[in-house]
Amino acid sequence: MIKQVIKPYIGHILTWTILYLFPYIIFLYEPSKLQKLDFAFFKTHTTNMIVWAIIFYSHLLYIGPKLFFSLKRWKYFSILLFGGLTYAGINYLISLMGPPHPVKVGTLDFLFARIIGPLFFYTVCILASTMLFLYNEQARQKELYKQMELEKTVAELNMLKLQISPHFLFNTLNNIRWLVRKSHPNSEDTIIKLSEILRYIIYEVTDSNVDINKEIEHLRNYIELQALRLPIEGKVEFQVSPSIKPYSVAPLLFIHFVENAFKYGIDSKNSPEIIFTLQNTEHGILFLSKNKVLLKKTTLNSEGIGLSNIKRRLELLYPRKHTLEINNQEGYFEVKLELTLDEN
Length: 344
What we know:
- GO terms for molecular function: kinase activity.
- The chain crosses the membrane at residues 9-29, 49-69, 76-95, 115-135.
- It comes from Flectobacillus roseus.
- Keywords: Kinase, Membrane, Transferase, Transmembrane, Transmembrane helix.
- This is Histidine kinase.
- With 344 residues, the chain is of the alpha+beta class.
- The chain folds into two domains: 9-143, no CATH class; 186-340, 2-Layer Sandwich (Heat Shock Protein 90).
- Helices cover 61% and strands 13% of the residues.
- The chain contains eleven helices and seven strands.
- The protein has helices at residues 2-6, 10-28, 31-34, 39-67, 73-95, 108-163, 166-181, 187-204, 212-228, 255-264, 304-317, and strands at residues 210-211, 235-240, 248-249, 273-280, 284-292, 322-329, 332-340.
- Strands 2-4-5-7-6 form a five-stranded mixed beta sheet, with helices on one face. A two-stranded antiparallel ribbon has the order 1-3.
- Helix 4 (39-67) runs antiparallel to helix 5 (73-95), helix 4 (39-67) runs parallel beside helix 6 (108-163) and helix 5 (73-95) packs antiparallel against helix 6 (108-163).
- The two termini are 49 Å apart.
């Protein structure tokens, strides 16, 4: 057990140990210099190694993963530049801890000893950290791809189960029957909308991505059919930005939240308030769902397997490219899903 925990870190331990002992090994071949080593050199060398380790692992574990793939890459390079200048300053302070080696300010020796040298070691440290970070990221992406392939079949089966609620289909058919009996002018339009929903589910969502306009039309049809069964007239809106960009998105990402809004936002005594919004952001789209909670259930916050599935799909399809916020407060249930996307 202990061996398995330590194994991933053995390479790091050995590398830092060799780097730390390297000056002492070199001095073994120069006994005259070895005799001159004192506590000041030990203190300076140890402090330098600690600073290098902080730089290396700060970039490897936080700065790289957080900012390297960011759309605002200037932040990443600004931090690295600031770090380099800071390290040069720290290195100068560290040098004051060591043996006195007077270097005249402004000379070439001072330039190399206090500026170029530290920045060189800082750059090497960052490059080594970047190479290891990219190697780890590549390995992670390969593992993620394998995991996606393994889960694809199960995910597709779960999607098919969640694509359309039998309860919704039953109610819609009853509503259509009622409209036909009354010779309502909307009866034909309602049948068409239901057929479009079924066609979309059966034929369109087989691809990994669909045009966002098709997804919008599917949501619009679903919302309009759900609105037919409102026992009390209320506010049901689907607001779409008129200049929505031509993105491709994974199919049926939003339908679960729409279903929940109607599931918990309708009862037989109160006027519903259900609002959906889809709009552009700087680098993608933002989907908002808000409904007044009229039907209270214990599973409202988690929604059990349904919400777990949609969260898992988002993690697999949009790693580090989505944010999902769910709030249930002051009588309203709100969902905010933001996706970072590339235009077609």
